[in-house]
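Q: What does the assembled structure look like for these inputs?
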Amino acid sequence: DQQVKQNSPSLSVQEGRISILNCDYTNSMFDYFLWYKKYPAEGPTFLISISSIKDKNEDGRFTVFLNKSAKHLSLHIVPSQPGDSAVYFCAASGRGGGSNYKLTFGKGTLLTVNP
Amino acid sequence: NAGVTQTPKFQVLKTGQSMTLQCAQDMNHEYMSWYRQDPGMGLRLIHYSVGAGITDQGEVPNGYNVSRSTTEDFPLRLLSAAPSQTSVYFCASSYRSNNSPLHFGNGTRLTVT
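A:
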């Protein structure tokens, strides 16, 4: 039973346009959500996070939106750049069951930004 | 800072062989974890540690052992490798404080034939 779902295996956008990556979760105990970016042959790197007490968090070109009632979050990248091409993982953790070291990951979305 | 260092980068084992995947971090992180990534799957937690001398099981612990004798090191042991353990293994660490993100190593690609 997948608790964190990324239903789009891949996404292709033009440079300069907006990239929107989506993530759904089923576990109501999740209250902290993160996005990681992964290049081939490297480990995932932390991108941005959001706590369940917020519905939006921004960091430069990256914004994460959280809709708790829909159990849905999204990552917006504006403007998209070719260097953003990577696999993006959505991850979640629940304070009741542990901390950020016990993450549940989605399967990832491969983003390709075309010049 | 080196961050999280994993060795080896690649390893091929025969079924039944044993080996240890090494992980070391130089950030004085209390928390350390091991994840595996399989094709078409997200990362799945194998074992984790909240401090030296303390370890616990994650989502997929069978076939793996861990120990945490120092803050810096968190080795993952395969006692009798099986083809189902063919995967990419990632070690990660973080501070104890809430909302401190995981820092990952670059992974060990293991093939069991």
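Chain B is about 0% helix and 50% strand.
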